[in-house]
Amino acid sequence: MSEEIKNFLYLNRRAPYGTIYAWESLEVVLIGAAFDQKVSLAFVDDGVFQIVKGQKTEQIGMKNFSPTYSALGDYDVNQLYVERESLEERGLTVDDLMHLTWEDEDEDWAEKDSIRVVSRAEMAEIITQQDVVFSF
Amino acid sequence: MSDLHTINKSPFEKSSFDSCMEHVLEGSAVLLYEDGVYAALKGTAAEGKVKSVQGVKVYALGPDLNARGLQEERVIDGVEIVDYAGFVDLAAKHDKVVAWV
Amino acid sequence: MAIEVDGKVLETDEEGYLVNLKDWVPAVADEMAKEDDLVLTEEHWEIINFLREYYDEYQIAPAVRVLTKAVGKRMGKEKGNSKYLYSLFPYGPGKQACRFAGLPKPTGCI
Fold first, then answer.
1. Which CATH architecture has domain B3-100?
2. Given A2, A19, A54, C89, which residue has the most CB atoms within 10 angstroms?
3. How many domains, in total, are found in chain C?
4. Within an 8 Å CB–CB cutoff, is residue B97 touching chain A?
5. Whole-angstrom Cα distance, residue C70 to residue C16?
6. What is the domain-level CATH number for residue C8?
7. Does the active-site annotation cover C109?
8. Structure confidence at residue C110 as a pLDDT band (50, 70, 90)
9. Structural domain containing residue C10
10. Selection from A101, A27, A92, A10 nearest residue A65 by Cα
């Protein structure tokens, strides 16, 4: 492709299930991943609740889309930035999050972590380095 | 990069304003519109953050202030009021828009 | 729209995908294939079953390039390529195979 590859960041700041934003964001990410751009996700504020492990939605009658985050690696979305302060404010640590990985085809499918916990200051830098930020 | 950050939620109802103020970098700008304009008022709990943010120009959308009965004299000194064309100019002159929705 | 399988009428959307995932039985795939002038072989079923497992694990129907890569990883490069998958599913291995498998239209197919 002759077009320039751009950096796209999806900025997720809302909890799942209460509103449709989290699922909509995930769907847009998966659709957008077809366009050969560099895509990463940021989880800030209540957005960190999207990737908490152990979600069970049977009793609220909604689709549990948390397993879909594990498919992001297949879609070449390998960079999930999670803000440390947002976790701490909510009494969470990285151990409360799903273990999300991607497989590196160039290294015989070696499994690598997708989640990177970053500070608020680092998150501000990550946001400013993008070409495009989509907010959900 | 010099980004335009936009906030359209009341600082008293949502975390959009607080979160934006903690992620905005020097040399960028913040535009308050819709319910975001409540953060532009003097004497609120948000005023301190608007005044103390370093090297960041803050704008408020005039039509949204007027709609809410908020006269110009109630707006924090240093916050610049812009119209829709001003909003467009701001979006155009920055590298990108970061929306805190 | 609808499809009749084993005497039961199952609801489908305007593109022929099953509306209710739970309606699926293997005969659905056979019936849909017949309508597309295909006879399902073991090779087709290998992909259909793979798609169903993928959906079960990730709750999405994979885009065709994701399917191709995943098949390559699981079954080897000789199957994980578009030529092989299109030879099985001429209307598109993502769209057609997902339809046979009772899944929604793939996420990320445009």
1. 3-Layer(aba) Sandwich (3.40)
2. C89
3. 1
4. yes
5. 25
6. 1.10.10.370
7. yes
8. low
9. 2-100
10. A27
